[in-house]
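Protein details
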Amino acid sequence: MSTNTNDKKSWLDKLSERFDALMTKFDMPEDIRHEIETFMLSVAKEQYLTGNKAGISWLRKQVGAKPGQLLAAIDAPAQAA
């Protein structure tokens, strides 16, 4: 039976599932598995936060907003219409 629940999973859930499958495939001991998982998730979090900051900086430049004024700048064109 196939469902589309996989489409609704977050990238983190998908990454965790793939990690678990790999660790099972190689029969990794629990202590090593935990250490690798901690490392992998910390790198993923750092990259996510870096990408998020870069995206916000890009958007701020696109709308000409200063820090703290981003939402007002985004809403301004919609209010003028």
Summary: The chain has three helices and no strands. The chain has one domain: 10-80.
